[in-house]
Amino acid sequence: MVDSTLVLCGGYSSPYSMKMRAVLRYRHIPHRWVLRNSKWDDLPTPPVPVIPVLAWPDGQGGYGDVMVDSSPQITRLEAEYKERSLIPNDLALAFIDFILEDFADEWITKMMYHYRWAYEADIEKAGQLLPLDQNLQLPEAMHTKAHDFIIERQIGRRAMVGSTDSNTHILENSYMNTLDILEQHFRSQDFLFGERPGRTDFALYGQLKPLLWQDPTPMAIAVERAPRVMNWVQRVDDLSWWEVNGDEGWTPMESCEETVIQLLQEAGRTYIPFIIANNEALQSGADELVCDINGSEYRQVPFKYQAKCLQWIREGYNGLSSVDQSRVQEYLDGSGCENLFK
To answer: Are 238 and 22 in contact (CB under 8 A)?
Structure first.
């Protein structure tokens, strides 16, 4: 019998690894979880050295294909596995879900990186734990060396992702705004778009797990500010038990909770100005992007990957029917997200 079990290779402290493991669990897709660069990791080298790596068996004891990047991984899984889909039938709602997934993956991740590598208690905890993913029996001397190396490398990259002294209040205010919106949402709802999770639910889970359950500074904020969000993160870790009936369970876009609009507004005030300025900086050849976020000047080096994200969003919009484009425009009007298409 040919083994069709996928292999997901990642790390416990990786938000995208946790995102994809939760997706596979919820969708009942047979898979094996392996720690990247551990003694159990036998995957071939992926196109880009990032995690998680998702591998497809070739039926001969090896792997026929490997890929990285959680959003394209989800898209491929949707094409290959039909049950317990993450994509709403309503293509306009599916597009809103895609925008907010990108907000979580590319903006909330800045908050995650910032809190982990800006505060001493968080830095030390991460430095102690991260090396052990690869080897639980790591000798003490090597553990100390890895601890020091990881801390120096990650702190040195803070400015690259926007975690600077001048940007601190922007990222931390956005973190608290996001928690407040989600806390209000989960007072009446289990997921963002109805009675089943979409792409954004898993993207939020991936970034919020380290923020709310691993790193002490943002976790302390969440305990006081968003206990429901903390509990929700625990639930989404494994939704294999959640019952789904065919394609039912999605709320019509126009009937979604007001908190979904509020989350779009948070994205429109923060991530959308950033991603547009990033694209403009890359096009002009500038070595720094500058944009206004909530009345404050935000600066960081431009990233090519976020230009690809903007391209994917615009391609998704252009792929909608004229009717669904009009619905999306009306739904996004005034949120700031409509600026994506100007």
So the answer is: yes
Query: How many whole angstroms separate alpha carbon 164 and alpha carbon 78?
Result: 38
Question: How far is 187 from 164, CA to CA, in rounded Å?
Answer: 34
Mean of pLDDT over the chain: 97
Partners of residue 191 on adjacent β-strands: 194
Give how far Cα 73 sits from Cα of 6, 26, 136, 164, 261, Å. 12, 15, 29, 31, 27
**CA pair distance 110, 207, nearest whole angstrom:** 9
Q: Where are the domains of the chain?
A: 6-80, 91-341
Q: Please state, as a whole number, how many other Cβ atoms lie within 10 Å of the Cβ of residue 60.
A: 9
Architecture of domain 6-80: 3-Layer(aba) Sandwich (3.40)
Beta bridge partners of 35: 10
Please give the single-letter amino acid code of residue 235. R
Question: Per residue in 44-85, pLDDT tens?
Answer: 988 899 999 999 999 888 898 999 999 999 999 999 999 999
DSSP code of 194? Answer: B
Give the predicted TM-score (pTM) of the model: 0.97
**pLDDT at residue number 1:** 46
Contacts of 174 (CB under 8 A, 6+ apart): 107, 111, 266, 270
Provide the pairing of β-strand 53-57 with 6-10.
antiparallel
Which CATH number applies to 91-341? 1.20.1050.10
High-pLDDT (> 70) share of the chain, %? 99
Six token digits for residue 212: 């709310």
What distance in Å separates the CA atoms of residue 120 and residue 271, rounded to the nearest whole number? Answer: 27
